[in-house]
Amino acid sequence: MKASLYVQAVYRALLSPAKPKVSYSQYGEDLLIKTALSDQKTRGFYVDVGCHHPRRGSNTYGLYRRGWRGLLIDVEEVKVLACRLRRRRDRAIVAAVSDREYGTPIYSPGAFSTNTTINLSSIPDPDTYRPVGHIVTTTLTKLLDDYQVPPDFELLSIDVEGMDYEAIKGLDLQRYKPGVICVENWEALQGIEAVLASAMHRLLVQHQYRLHGWAGLSTIYKRTTESTGSSR
Q1: CA dist 105 → 41, 81, 143, 159 (Å)
Q2: Which of the four pLDDT bands, split at 50, 70 and 90, describes residue 232?
Q3: In sequence order, what are the residues at sequence separation of 6 or more whose Cβ sits closer than 8 angstroms to the Cβ of residue 186?
Q4: Of the candidates 91, 92, 98, which has an alpha carbon nearest to the alpha carbon of residue 77?
Q5: What is the predicted pLDDT for the residue at 7?
Q6: Closest Cα to residue 57, out of 82, 85, 38?
Q7: Interacting residues of 43 by C-beta distance below 8 A, sequence separation 6+
Q8: Max Cα separation, the chain?
Q9: Domain spans of the chain, in order of start
Q10: How many angstroms separate the CA atoms of 83 and 77, rounded?
Q11: Which tens digit of pLDDT belongs to each residue from 164-205?
């Protein structure tokens, strides 16, 4: 008996596969998204706002490899062109999202930066940024209408450097009901209590989303049909 146990222990310790999980996201968000999408058995549709790069730091590339497709959005043309070259099934467009339409400069600290923004007031070191273009903002509702996105699509990912709340506000969550929302919330810098007290959290809870996970500054919400009764 002891010999048998020893053989099993040796196998588990030395030969049993580790089964590592591959993540393409910056902080492993795609792994948390996968658990939130656990009941999604078929190929789905995503909207990736602030997509930046077709693979590196992407919350949706893992899903793309599994046969999913979707709409990729970024404010810089070079990033959109890179996505078009690498992700042929997706539709990639140049756009800036907010809760209203207005003209604004685009600011960046460097070429192909992950920190490109239209909201310079949200940046702690704005002197390191320079204008790299100009764009007229639009709303997510209008973009999803224009590109005929299914109203009950599976995943919405938003990472737009200080404009994330405005992006959510610009989406009609009565008409469009993504199953999972991954959105950057800078209140996460202050901890979970700040996240739960944030306007972003209150808005999503009001529309029947519950907090599913948290990675870096990204908060992952899953839609539920249950009544929440509270913003906590």
Answers
A1: 42, 20, 20, 18
A2: very low
A3: 122, 162, 164, 217
A4: 92
A5: 76
A6: 82
A7: 66, 67, 68, 69
A8: 76
A9: 23-223
A10: 10
A11: 999 999 999 999 999 999 999 999 999 999 999 999 999 999
What does the pLDDT look like over 102-132, one tens digit per residue? 999 999 999 999 999 999 998 889 999 999 9
Residues 200, 202, 208, 213, Cα dihedral to 10°: 60
Q: Note whether 153 and 175 are within 8 A (CB).
A: no
**Strand ranges across the sheet with 91-94:** 91-94, 69-74, 45-49, 155-158, 180-184, 218-223, 209-215
Q: Which amino acid is at 49?
A: V
Sequence-distant (≥ 6) Cβ neighbours of residue 194 within 8 angstroms: 187, 188
Q: Which two tokens stand for residue 70?
A: 């979707």
Structure tokens given for 187 = 């209140």
Give buried/exposed letters for 206-218 (b at 16+ CB in 10 A, else e): ebbbebbbbbebb
Q: Are strands 180-184 and 45-49 parallel, antiparallel or unpaired?
A: unpaired
CATH architecture assigned to 23-223: 3-Layer(aba) Sandwich (3.40)
CA atoms within 13 A on the CB side of 174: 0
Looking at every residue in the chain, the average pLDDT score rounds to 92
Residue 41's pLDDT band, with cuts at 50, 70 and 90, is low
Q: What share of the chain has pLDDT > 70, as a percent?
A: 96
Q: What is the 3-state secondary structure (H, E, C) of 84-142?
A: HHHCCCCEEEECCECCCCCEEEEEECCCCCCCCECCHHHCCCHHHCEEEEEEECECHHH
What are the residues whose beta carbons fall under 8 Å from the beta carbon of 107, sequence distance 6 or more? 116, 117, 118, 120, 123, 126, 129, 130, 131, 132
